[in-house]
Amino acid sequence: MNESAPQATGSAGARRPTEAAAPSRRSGRSAATRGAILAAARERFAADGYERATIRAVAKDARIDPSMVMRYYGSKEGLFAAASAIDLRLPDLTAVAREDIGRALVAHFLDVWEKDEVMTAMLRVGITNTAGAERMRGVFRDQLLPVARRVCPDPAEAPRRAGLCAAQILGMALTRYVLRFPAAVALSGEELADWLGPTVQRYLTAERP
């Protein structure tokens, strides 16, 4: 009898890791499902635009039931909001020499675009429908404008200067990653930073045009 007690305890102890692992596996599957839905949604919104894209089409592309899309995101509006959530991960420019700010920003944006297809997908969405354009405007307004305020000579001019920077950076991204102009694609990241950096620098820190 005394020998059986430790065996029972050991058996229960052996079951605990398996039981604890079950929620972890479910969480992993949930994350994978969400990732598949968002990837499919970005491509579908980019291809069809917000108005014509459907939950059913996204679900088909993700190879899941449409009810799963609704379960995670509730509606097409909720799905679009999640699919178009972009963190530009802008660097802390207080650690960058003032004369190098423009080049640092261009290099950062290039790094983001090279590593993250979400940015390219959402740029496509932004040029095909109103909702996508508004989303992109919001991303740059909320994240680039504070940078411009911190470094430009007159904070009141920050919206104009941030807009000029966005035009330069998005123009580069459009020709390089969406339209794929051969000359734009052929340039290395270093070359692009060398060419565009001084222009962005002037937009942000020059006293006047």
Structural class: mainly alpha
Portion in beta strands: under 5%
User: Major sheet, described briefly?
Assistant: none
For the secondary structure, the number of strands is 0
> pLDDT average, as an integer?
87
Radius of gyration: 24 Å
- Uncertain stretches: 1-13
Keywords:
single chain; mainly alpha; 209 residues
Characterise the protein shown here.
This protein is an all-alpha fold and 209 residues long. The protein has eleven helices and no strands. It has helices spanning 4-52, 55-62, 66-73, 76-83, 101-115, 117-126, 130-143, 145-151, 158-178, 182-186, 189-205. Helix 2 (55-62) crosses helix 3 (66-73) and helix 3 (66-73) crosses helix 4 (76-83). The protein is elongated. Residues 1-13 have low confidence and may be disordered.
Show the helix and strand layout.
Layout: H1 4-52, H2 55-62, H3 66-73, H4 76-83, H5 101-115, H6 117-126, H7 130-143, H8 145-151, H9 158-178, H10 182-186, H11 189-205
Helix pairs in contact: 1-2, 1-4, 1-6, 2-3, 3-4, 5-6, 5-11, 6-7, 8-9, 9-11
Summarize this structure briefly.
This protein has 209 residues and is mainly alpha-helical. The protein is built from eleven helices and no strands.
